[in-house]
Design brief:
single chain; 280 residues; alpha/beta; two-stranded antiparallel sheet; 13 helices; 10 strands; 39% helix; globular; binds zinc ion
């Protein structure tokens, strides 16, 4: 079973232009003429086209992320993601609650999960400018813990205009992990750039903390995490599509790494299935 824990949708006009100015660099030469906007709209134009693409990539389930970051990246609203995923068994919607946009974040999260069908929360500290261990966020974590949904958060570098990197330090999740021992925390991008060691250590230390490897080149993973294999139960695969546009190539490159088969199976799907409560 393969689970992609990190997919963005949204029509191209929902994202700021600098997202695509950056994304074009990740396209193969032959796809440059089409461009990242058209690629996004063609594949994520509907649930059906995205599911066909996932089939072609060999992906069984995908986490689809809402993002309400009007200043830095764009607005793929919770409503949009709810409607996009509706009726799908394999698309798993994660909502976003932006603490600066919502007067009552905890109540909003409860509504999104219990009434709108969201199965996880994604936070964007670097794009929405807050520290993950700010006490103002604690009511949100308390709701997530009691509803038994995972909280995933961007950690590490962010290249888009207006992002603030200081909010991406995974160390802030040490507080959250200690204070909410039954809350599952997933550190997206594993502290990308300058905090790989922190993300790795925290996910080894805390039973409830996972690292997720979206946006990291698979062929570099063992440089970033020399003891990758020792953390086999706590690492989750994600692509960060469409920013990283080639999911199948990513999976194949990961499979080439000198790791045990059991580790590859866990990272590509087993660990995510446990976190998401999926049984096959
Ligand atoms: Zn992403």
């Amino acid at each position: 079973m393969i689970i992609d824990f990190h997919i963005h949708v949204g029509r191209s006009e929902m994202w700021h232009p600098w997202i695509f100015e950056w994304a074009v660099n990740n396209l193969r030469e032959e796809d440059r003429a089409l461009g990242p906007q058209k690629l996004l709209d063609a594949i994520a134009g509907s649930r059906e086209t995205l599911e066909r693409h996932l089939d072609a990539c060999g992906v069984d389930y995908a986490v689809v992320l809402a993002e309400e970051s009007p200043v830095t990246t764009g607005m793929t609203t919770n409503e949009y993601v709810r409607d996009f995923c509706r009726g799908s068994q394999r698309l798993i919607p994660f909502c976003n609650v932006n603490p600066h946009l919502d007067a009552r974040p905890a109540q909003e999260l409860e509504r999104l999960v219990t009434r709108e069908g969201f199965r996880g929360l994604k936070l964007y500290p670097t794009y929405q400018h807050f520290y993950p261990n700010d006490p103002a966020l604690y009511p949100l974590y308390a709701v997530a813990q009691s509803l038994k949904i995972p909280v995933m958060a961007h950690t590490g570098s962010s290249v888009f205009r207006g992002a603030k990197l200081k909010y991406g330090d995974p160390l802030a999740f040490d507080d959250v992990a200690v204070d909410f021992p039954n809350l599952v925390i997933v550190m997206a991008h594993s502290g990308r750039g300058f905090w790989y060691d922190r993300a790795f250590f925290l996910s080894r230390l805390h039973e409830n903390v996972y690292m997720e490897i979206a946006g990291l080149p698979p062929q570099r993973l063992l440089d970033y995490f020399p003891e990758f294999e020792r953390n086999a139960d706590k690492i989750i695969f994600g692509s960060d599509w469409p920013g990283m546009p080639y999911i199948r190539r990513n999976i194949e490159a990961f499979r080439q790494l000198p790791l045990q088969d059991s580790t590859k199976e866990k990272v590509l799907g087993g660990n995510a299935a446990r976190v998401l409560g999926i049984r096959d």
